[in-house]
Design a protein that fits this description.
This protein is an all-alpha fold and 111 residues long. It contains seven helices and no strands. The radius of gyration is 20 Å and the shape is elongated.
Length: 111
């Protein structure tokens, strides 16, 4: 494991990734979308892993590019449109329950 990756594994806040990699960001965008941005960053890393054996400078550039892409997704869009998490993927996060099913459940609980 590279030194950069080892260092990033210690981070607990999205801002730490942005500051460490030198990515400019609007605090409000990160505040609202932090988990979504980091999840998208991980998706980009899974899809296009950073090559092993790069110099630390080249490796930093590669991670920076992927974080910038993840961040840009949420500057121009939003969480429900990007559908990073399963709750947004399942019927746009909307689940319906019929009144009949609710009544049946209530009757079952009373019994």
């Amino acid at each position: 494991m590279s030194n950069l990756l080892s260092e990033m594994e210690k981070f607990s806040a999205a801002e730490e990734f942005f500051n460490f990699l030198g990515v400019d960001y609007e605090p409000q965008v990160v505040h609202v979308n932090r988990l979504h941005i980091l999840k998208r960053f991980q998706q980009y890393l899974d899809r296009d892993p950073v090559a092993q054996g790069l110099s630390e400078a080249d490796e930093r550039v590669a991670y920076k590019k992927l974080l910038e892409m993840a961040y840009a997704d949420f500057v121009k869009s939003n969480a429900s449109t990007e559908k990073v998490f399963k709750v947004f993927q399942d019927a746009d996060g909307v689940q319906t329950v019929s009144v009949k099913k609710l009544k049946q459940t209530l009757d079952e609980r009373r019994a």
